[in-house]
Every structure is written in structure tokens, then in C-alpha cells.
Amino acid sequence: MMLLVPILVAPAAAALGCLLARSPRIMAFVNVVAFGTTLALGVDLLRQLQAPPHVVTQWEEFFRADALSVWMVLLISVVSLGSSLYAGRYFQRDLAAGVVTPGRVKEFFVLTPLFTAGMFLVVLANNLGVMWFALEATALSSVLLVALYNRNTSLEAAWKYVILGSLGLALALFGTVFTYAAAIDQKSTALPSFNWSYLMSMAGQLNPRMIKLAFVFVLVGYGTKAGLAPMHTWLPDAHSEAPSPTSAMLSGVSLKVALYALLRFHILTTACLGSGFSRTLLLVFGLGSMCLAAPFILVQTNLKRLLAYSSLEHIGLICVGFGLNSPVTIWGSLLHMGYHALTKPVLFFAAGNIHQTCHTLQMRLIGPGMVKMLPATVVCMGLAAVAATGLPPFGLFFSELTILNGGFAAGHSIVSTIVLLALLGAFCGILYQLTRILLGVPKIARTSDAAPWDGVPAMGLMLGALVVFSVWLPAPLRFVMQRAAGIIGGEAVP
Amino acid sequence: MNPVQSELATQCITLLAAGMLVIQLLMVVQGMLLTNIRLFALQSLMLAAIAALIAFFHNATHVYWVAGLTLAGKVFFLPWLLNRQVRRIQIEQEIAPLLNSSASMLLCGGFTLLGYIVARPFTTLERLGNNTLGVAITLLLTGFFLMINRRKAISQVLALLTVENGVMLAAVALTTYGMPLVVELGIFFDVMVAVMVLGLLVYRIRETFASMDVSKLSQLKG
Q: Could you tell me which residues come within 8 angstroms of residue A30 by beta carbon, excluding any fewer than 6 positions away?
């Protein structure tokens, strides 16, 4: 059963390898191999989870993977693999253009696997304290990635990200400490275990007042890292200033990993209080994020900020789905996490290509007619944009419909109506903004040559996976997702 | 542990926690950066002393680790690092707060009150030094205030560290023996790495903007 440790070791080894390697080509290759390995290990884990007891543990339960963790492991692996496939060629172009130094490229290939290893540790750790410091480690490794270009604006974005992120995580640590204090028996002197599974098994005996206070702290803390409004202000800055592969990872999985940490506390709080305290809060913050994102999408002028606000919208929707807390909406949210993780990186990769060709992200300077410049990139971006706005035949259409349907069925018609309106706003905004720059006749003469096939393998793979999984969910995957939905809904308490 | 000992331990811990609070308030009104760094070191020393007291009165060996790490990291290493950075980039000493010191003091008095109100429902729990929770929450709130009130990058780092001190105080105050060692170690190394990363960023910001005034970081909007 040596399955969980290698998932952490593979990226760490890749980071070490890249530290020693010289050529960017080799570093990119090492990254791809590492994430390919973790994906294979994740699939094997998926296979193991089919058999009872549906939980894999290691090192006396220090690592613990239940269905929810495995789902997250798969998402992290897929997005990291896609990003590393794209990153090799992306940085070759950047180096050729003299935008980055070789040292910075090395920094990227060393820090990215560390960032990923941190995320794996978040989802595999059983101990809530370990989960906290793993999340802090992801924040610290990604902040240097955000600052990679060393422009004025990227330093500003990195500073905002690290200060807000650290403050948020300090609050989350406060909440974590409170959770631990809630578990301490007043009479006995034994130190209780800080494992999530242990706390769940004694959820009824936890001090309810402390748990309540703890959840508020954790919500604000991890919510900051997950980019929930109104703590989201770092999100558009960091996403727009980071190199595109990093933007893809931040948006594709990092936000969801923070949400995962929040979910663990949500499950615990619900099990302890037996009421809708935490789910109502999730619902409010999710709705707030959605309503805030839509107007910003409509008036946005910067391409990557547009995509960042769209991520805010999606993370809000996922949160609403968990907040509605009916089996249907939870299922929809899990699906949405997966489909969004496959879609948003494609958009960021395409935006990266456009950035490298036009040397700007201001949409009025990119101008109409990108389809003539970068036909393959624009086709991928168009398809991904159609998917991200929730049009059929792509999966996001089904997951959004599932959440809305579940919301109406559970009698939350006001919430569902607000969600529908916000989705409509984002839909109009994204399609309107993107058609203006992608289609039409070019008006601005470009000096730099376009490299038509750059990044297309990575984008094609992710879009392909999106289409395949939109129409066909393999039975083992469906089983694990159903179990994960059960864990979140509080049915399959271990 | 007999009642006399327990009473003594509680008194000592309360005294030290109150000392931490006083230092925090001094930092709020103190305008010089290097003095602020020294005050932070002193505050961390008190935190280390609290941890050592708890370890001693409870015979909990692993809490000695916490005390030792706090002493090595927060009392010596981090202040040294920050000091060196301040001297190396030769920034002006003034901290440039937004609010003047009397208004800040008044506001922080309010935060202290708020901290004790929030902590009150939990102070009935029979634990060693449980009245430190109010101080911990106050450190958190005033740390946030310091963060907003200061425009120099290094003073924001210091504010973050005082928030961290507040969390660690809550950890020892609320949980009798502190948290499991693996968690404490993880938190410790995270804080060290965080300050180094922040220091690196401060350095780069200084190079690029020729200033450490973070209010100049205002290009990204909307």
C-alpha cells in the first residue's frame, strides 16, 4: 500500500532534479514526467478506492485518502501536467524575446513542482495542522511564481497576494487552533489526535461554541486563499501578472485546494452542530462572489483579469452548490470543479500565446482579428470560452444545470434565480469581450511573428479530455465522485 | 500539580501575556523601525517564556521545543534578519503611519475591549492561563490594524509577525499542552520561510520602485 508517499515524492524529486539541471528543455521534461507519474499514481489510487473500506491510509493514518482526496489528487495532477506541457515552449519564447532570464526560468521549474507537492500534501494530510502548513507552503511557493517577471505590476500583485494570503492563513490557523481546543477533554490529560478522521469520529463531543467560532475564522482565512468575495482582491492581480502556466494552476486547482480545506471544516462543523450554520455561510459567500464577479467581467479591459474574474464566478458557483447542500447540488459542484479545472487552463494558455504575440493584455490594444494571427490558439480559446460560459455540449453546461436544478428542487428559488442572473451576466460579458478580440479583421500591424502551433498540444489534450468526460464518466470515477458527494453531504461518515 | 503551584503558574502566565499586550501597544505608537524590531523580539521572548512555564508546570517535554524554537527563531534569528535588511537597504527610519499615535492608541484600546468580549464565553473553561485568550485575540486585531496603518513594507512584515505571535499564544493558552509537535514544527518553518520570501520581495520592490512605501503599489485596479 505504498501509494500516498510517492505522490508527494515525485514532484519533490522533480524540483531537486530541476535545481541540478541546466537546460530549460530538460527541466520542462522532468516536470512533465513527474506530473505524468503523479497522474498515473492518482489513477491507481482511484482503482484502489473501489474496494472497501474505500479509504487508503499510510504512516499510522498520517496520510489518508478518501474519495474526496482522490478526486482532488486527480484534478491537481491533470492541471499540473497540462501546465508543464505548455510551460516548456512558453518559456522558450520568453527567453528568445528576452523577457525573462534563464535564472528565472529555472526558478519556475523548481518552484512549480514544490507548489504542486504542497497541494498534494493539503489533500492527503489527515492532520488539520499539517493541512494548514501545507497550504501556507503552496502560498509561499506560488508568490515567487507570481513575481517571476519582476515588473512593477507583478511585484505589486505578489505583495498583495502574500500579505493578504498570510493574513488569511493566520486567521485560518486561529480557527485550526480553536478546532483543536474544542476536541480537548477537560478532565483527561491525554493529548488528543489532531486527525480529521478522529475529530469526525467524536464530532458529537466537540465543544459546539468553539467549533462555531473556529468555522468563522477558517471561512474567512481559507476563503481568502480560495478567492471568495470580499477577500478576493488579490485574485485578479495575481492571476493576471503571473506567467500563464502559473495562472492556469492558480485558477485551475489552487483555488479549489483552498476550498477543499474549507470543506473539511464544513463537514466537521455540520457533523458537530447538526445544523445549517456552515452551509448558510458558504451559500452567502458563494453568492456574493458570483454577484461581484459578473459586473467586473462586463467592464473588464485586461484579458487575463477577465479570465480571473470568471474564475471568481466559477468558484462562487461551486461554493453555492456546496452551500445548498442537497445531494444533487453537491454532485453538480464536484462535476463543476472537474470541468472548470479542464477548461480554465486552456483559456489561460491561449491568453499567454496572445500576450507573447501582442506584448500586451489590454484588449483594445490586442484588437480584433486574432483569428488571422493565431488560428489554432483562437479556435482552442473559442471552444474553451464556449465551454466556460456554460454552453452545451461541454460539461460545464451540465454541471451548472445540475446545480440550478437541485437548487430549484430543494426550494431555494431565490438563490437559484440570483445564480442564474449572475451566470447570464458572465455569459454575456465573456462572449462579448472575446468575440471582439478574436473575430473580425485585424486593424493593428504586428511586428512579432506568430508561432501558430505553440501550446496547441496542451490545449488540445485538455479540451479533448473535457469533451470526453462531458459525455462519458468512467464508472470508477463516477463511483468515487458519488462517495465524495456523500462525504460532503454527511452521509458516509467514516 | 497542587493548587498553589497551579495558582502561581496562572499568575505568571497572565503577567507575561499582559506584557505582550503592552509591547503590542508600544509598537502601535512607536515610530522608529529599528525600535519596533526590538520590541517584537521582546514580545517573542515573553511568548517563549510562557511556553517554557507551561512545559515546566505540566512536565510536557515537547512544549520545551516550542519555547526553544521561538527563542531561536523569533527572538534572535528574525530580528537579526530584519535588522540587517533595514540597514542594508538604508531605508528611512520613520514608519509613516496613516493615523497619528493618539488616535491609534484609542482605537487599539477599543480592540482590547473587543478581544476580551469575544474571549469571555471561553474563559470559564478550566485551563491554565485561560485568560490569555483575550490577549491573543487583541494581538490579532491590533496586528491587523498595524498592517493597515503602516505603509512601509518591513513594518507590514512585523505586523504579520505579531499576528503570528497572537496565534501561538492562543495555541498554548487554549490547548493546555500546545499542539502536536509536527504541527508546531511545520508552523515554525513556514514562518521562517515566509519572512525570507517577504524579505526577498521587499528587496525587489526596493530595487524596482526605489522605495519601500507600499502605497506606491497601486497600478492594478478593477
A: A14, A17, A18, A21, A109
Give contacts of B126 with chain A, Cβ < 8 Å.
Answer: 186
- All 3 cell numbers of residue A184? 480537548
8 Å CB contact between A158 and A143: yes
**Distance (Å, rounded) from C-alpha A290 to C-alpha A400?**
13
Neighbours of A479 (CB within 10 A): 16
Interface of A with B in 149-208 (CB under 8 A): 150-153, 155-160, 162-163, 166-167, 170-171, 173-174, 177-178, 180-181, 184, 186, 189, 191, 193-194
B176 pLDDT band (50/70/90 cuts)? low
Between the alpha carbon of residue B213 and those of residues A165, B20, B50, B150, the distances in Å are 20, 28, 35, 9
**Is residue A494 predicted with pLDDT exceeding 60?**
no
Q: How far apart are CA A477 and CA A489, in angstroms?
A: 18
Residue A494 inside a domain? The answer is: no
Interface residue B174 vs chain A (CB under 8 A) = yes
Do A186 and B126 count as a contact with CB atoms less than 8 A apart? yes
Owning domain of residue A338: 4-489
pLDDT digits (tens, 9 = 90+) for A24-78: 889 999 999 999 999 999 999 999 888 888 888 888 888 999 999 999 999 999 9
User: Using the 8-state DSSP alphabet, how is residue A195 labeled?
Assistant: B
Cell numbers for B88, please give them: 542594508
> Does the beta carbon of A261 lie under 8 angstroms from any beta carbon of chain B?
no
Cβ contact A276:A325 at 8 Å = yes
- DSSP E strands in A230-320: the ranges are none
Alpha carbon distances (Å) from A429 to A377, A422, A434: 20, 11, 8
Mean pLDDT taken over chain A: 90
What is the ipTM metric for this complex?
0.91
Q: Return the residue in B58, B152, B175 with the most chain A beta carbons within 10 A, the one to mutate for interface testing.
A: B175
Count of domains for chain A: 1
| Residue A65 one-letter amino acid | A
Contact check, Cβ <8 Å, A210/B122: yes
Count the residues in chain B: 222
Task: Read off the C-alpha cell for A210.
Answer: 468553539
- Looking at the complex, report in whole angstroms how far the Cα of residue B208 sits from the nearest Cα belonging to chain A: 7
- Coil, strand, or helix at residue A207? coil
Chain B residues inside the 8 Å CB shell of A150: 204, 208
Provide, as residue numbers in chain A, all residues whose Cβ is less than 8 Å from the Cβ of B164.
Answer: 170
Report if residue A485 sits inside a domain.
yes
Residues of A in contact with B209 (CB under 8 A): 152, 155
Burial of residue B11 (CB within 10 Å: 0-12, 13-18, 19+) is exposed
Judging contacts by C-beta atoms under 8 Å, the chain B residues touching residue A180 are: 171, 174-175, 179
